Amino acid sequence: MPEALIALGGNVGDVRAILRKAIEIFCDGEEVQLRQRSSDYKTPPWGVTEQPPFVNAAIAVETGLEPRALLERAHAVERIFGRNRENEER
């Protein structure tokens, strides 16, 4: 089964708890299996700097999903936690 590396991060709410739950949801089912998880890393914001620092992590997964389906799965998890990409300043 192919492997994919997924970067995660956030700076709203209890980010570490959200990351744990997001990974659990993302890897739920047979299509995506968690193989490894990095430590959490706290980083300063980049671009729009007037915001709290970020907590970032990465996961290695095995998946039978095509890249577009994997991206759609990641976006679905983001929506569960309230992310609305249309309202973001970039």
Helix-strand blueprint:
Elements: E1 3-10, H1 15-26, E2 32-37, E3 41-43, E4 54-63, H2 67-80
Antiparallel strand pairs: 1-4, 2-4, 3-4
Report on the structure:
The model has no long low-confidence stretch (mean pLDDT 94). 29% of the residues lie in helices and 30% in strands. The chain has one domain (3-87): Alpha-Beta Plaits (2-Layer Sandwich). Strands 1, 2, 3 and 4 form a four-stranded antiparallel β-sheet that branches. The chain has helices at 15-26, 67-80; strands at 3-10, 32-37, 41-43, 54-63. The chain is α+β, with helices and mostly antiparallel strands.
Distance between the amino and carboxyl termini: 35 Å
The average pLDDT is 94
Please provide the count of β strands: 4
Q: From N to C, what is the helix and strand string? A: EHEEEH
- Classify the beta-strand content into a percent band: 25-35%
Q: Low-confidence parts lasting 5 or more residues at pLDDT below 50?
A: none
Question: CATH first level: which class?
Answer: Alpha Beta
Helix content: 25-40%
Number of helices, counting only DSSP H or I runs of 4 residues or more: 2
**CATH level 3 topology:** Alpha-Beta Plaits
Query: What is the architecture at the second tier of CATH?
Result: 2-Layer Sandwich
Rg, Å, rounded = 14 Å
* Content-based structural category: alpha+beta
Q: What's the CATH H-level superfamily name? A: 7,8-Dihydro-6-hydroxymethylpterin-pyrophosphokinase HPPK
Cα shape: globular
Number of domains: 1
The main β sheet shows up as:
4 strands, antiparallel
